[in-house]
Amino acid sequence: MNVTAQNHDEVSALLTVTVDKADYKGNVDKQLHNYAKNAQVPGFRKGKVPMGMVRKQYEAPISIEEINKVVSEGLNAYIKDNNLKMVGQPVPVPVDDLDLNAEQITVAFEVGYEPDFKIDLASYSAPHYQVQASDKEIGQSIENMQKRFAARSEQDKIGDDSQVALEVTQVVEESAEGEHHHHPKTLTASKETKALFDLVKKLKKDATLKVTKKQLEENEDLATQLGFPKEELEHLHHDELEVKVTDIYSLDLHELNQELFDKVYGEGTISSEQELKGKVKEELDEYFQQNADIHFVNKILEQVNEKQEVNLPEAFLVKWLQFSNENIQSEAQAKEIFENEKAIVKSQIIEGKLMTDNGIELDYADLLAQSEQMVRNQLAVYGIHNLPDEEIQKYAVEMLKQEEQVRQISSEVGMAKLKDVILETSEKKAATISHDEFLELLKK
Q: What is the pTM of this model?
């Protein structure tokens, strides 16, 4: 067997694989003999079917299967031995007529290579914000702790301090047939959700009101607070919602005392309100800084994508799209899709290049640690914080058996490592701002 390359340009080539009959004939004959031994054909005893009959029925499909194996192994070995960095997968050139009796069979593949270029991260710079939590945010966080351990007091009617438990149901018309059952949403309205609170504040317990889809379209805040943000509202099956008040109560905030400090941080960790404020500020600043670090990294990557020239194997990628996606019916359609995704392909190649050039590698331990953290985060949503480490790891291992999960986790781990490289290498223009200022900056 022999593999040769004919370069179209620096980023694409035609790889030709020539297979000798001797490369696969032995395996074909072996499989045919196995068929002959075990075949059950009317008119013949088991194992006594004439070899000529077996060859006539099975030799062609077995030969094609074995040729595919040999070609695939040879192609992969050539790519590995020559350290070729591929874009997409090899696209086979169609063969009009495969002569299985020939002493040699030749098949060809169009391939695309990653372009060769250099990125000097040290030449890029961006603002690196030190985000400070405000007294208001610290106070709000402490109030949330007090609410978390608050005592509930039932109320007869809705007042300014009320928490209003609601059940929101899609109204199904009596004449509708084949309707799906819609599970009601359970929500809580308070003065923090002004649009929703204003809607229900005159209702009593067990009272209901109707809200039309048109009202929701005209009031985005209300729609979002009712659990139907714009993207979900577009798919709302019915024209009305029914909102029912199921409970009215107030929250008696937990006192700022040692009991609360111990409940939140463990016994004896915090011993005064001043220490609590300091601890909360430290936590908020750390969380805000993580977001600021991500902002810095994103700005650097935006600049790299904007300034870096990347010679993509465009003609190959159009062919690969046609080959790999059965929904693409024509070259024109493939070209249109490629143009729409060109920036994404460029970005992926740049990120891959940065990881390779900076020695970023992923191993199983990295993926397992990330999947364990994902399991902990998912359990925390349901209030589960004390599952033993061995149980966490068991769930994480199961997660890593799913190909899509491995792909997602690998991407997250790779980007986290790349983030550290960019933070260490690129120039940071330090600036201190409040969290409110940082949020305004993100909006822009």
A: 0.71
